[in-house]
Amino acid sequence: MGAPKKLFIKTYGCQMNVYDSERMAEAMGGAGYVATDTADDADMILLNTCHIREKAAEKVYSELGRMKGLKQANPDLKIGVAGCVAQAEGEEILRRQPMVDLVVGPQSYHRLPEMEQQTRAGGRALDTDFPEEDKFEHLKGRGQAKRGPTAFLTVQEGCDKFCAFCVVPYTRGAEVSRPSERVLSEARALVERGVREVTLLGQNVNAYHGGDGGLAGLIRGLAKIDGLERIRYTTSHPNDMDDALIAAHGEEPKLMPYLHLPVQSGSDRVLKAMNRKHTAESYIRLIERIRAARPDILISGDFIVGFPGETEADFDDTMALVRAVEYGQCYSFKYSTRPGTPAAERAQIDAAQADDRLQRLQALLRDQQRAVQDRMVGREVNVLFEKTGREPGQMIGKSDHLHSVFVSADVAVGDLARVRITDSAPNSLAGALI
Ligand code: 5AD
Ligand code: SF4
Prior knowledge:
single chain, alpha/beta, Rossmann fold, pyruvate-formate lyase- activating enzyme, CATH 2.40.50.140, 3 domains, 19 strands, globular, binds 5'-deoxyadenosine, binds iron/sulfur cluster
């Protein structure tokens, strides 16, 4: 057998793509590829793409444009597009970019090794099926190599909610949960490789129904694994936040006090137009119940401004909701028209007005995040160290509340230690070992 071939994967978008990229690298490992971290010396480049907002797809096309030179220098180089842009625009990509050799959607990447073979035989390969078989069952084991202390673990995929702005139900398909035994065995294998924290992933992870007791049942099962110290999950829909999951936040010490619970808007009119099926009031009541179970929980969210029909009064309602909740972390976006979604057909609002609203919202969210973070100063927190810092002796880890914490101490990557927070900077905390 010759020298291993080199695979470069560039990942866009959400954590689910990060997880998929790892699994694709492992699948190609079985086909004689090793991972490389530059495109320059690669035998195969895969772009694992995101389609959630307009610019994401454009970025992919411009990245492909930049790769022309690489392909000219090495005609054996294979270029593939994976992920949600692949799913949405499959044939269009092959038409628009003749140098793309293969296109593979998020539900069929277990077939990548065969597709690569096809391209080596001189063909082009396209697979954007939603196959009957479960890709996870067809992927090889996850390998034995030691790895970092944190890992993503996809437990649920797809979305049945059909928010009027969102492409996910079309690109990722219907909600599907992985059976809990398989998730548990993947988690055990990760722990054997050094993982101490898992983040369970799903487009609607709290709609998980792969075993008894839904997501709460899965979390309680995972919490029994020795050596697994921390459990997180993302992303959740307010309507799937059931009593058992709320109770788990109060009762399960390994479940971290952090919840990403997007609301998108604080206006009932806009929420209705978005097909969110909840109100601002019901969301605020829900947050209150979650905080009653776990008072120190940090709430994170997503917002869209400039949704078709959003008025200044609607935007005021969003600002009021943000003030009522107080977010510790937030992502906010200007509405982006996605062809094929219901909202794309509606009259769009003025772009400058949407920009202005986004700036005002982001200023408020920034202040809140900073205030929540500043309140950690003086407190004792647990930190799981993930990497070394730039200064000698400096280590960087995450607190239970997912704040980045810088500590100068003799600790190793993978250590979990008590730290007293001494300082708060714009995007991180500093502390000292206790
Ligand atoms: N425009 C802007 N933001 C969007 N999101 C999803 N679709 C769109 C869109 N068309 C945001 C939502 C979602 C997050 C992942 O991306 O806030 O929660
Ligand atoms: Fe998109 Fe709404 Fe489903 Fe989230 S819940 S993936 S925003 S359709």
